[in-house]
Specification:
The protein is 7% helix and 39% strand. It is mainly β.
């Protein structure tokens, strides 16, 4: 497993990490998001859901 990307917003409201696990049948990538209590989860914090999306990428 290795870290592909790390991102933190300037205001500190968003922090996420992408890790990759290499397997014989292909890589698996997981995204982890830091929550306000300092824990990391594979889902973003509820208060940041509206900040994350694909709208600006597909517009």
């Amino acid at each position: 497993m290795h870290v592909l990307t790390m991102h933190g917003s300037p205001d500190g409201a968003t922090c996420r990490v992408c890790v990759e696990i290499r397997r014989p049948d292909g890589p698996i990538r997981l995204f982890f998001f830091r929550h306000g209590d300092g824990t990391w989860h594979v889902f973003p914090p509820q208060d940041n859901l509206c900040r994350m999306g694909f709208d600006r990428l597909v517009a």
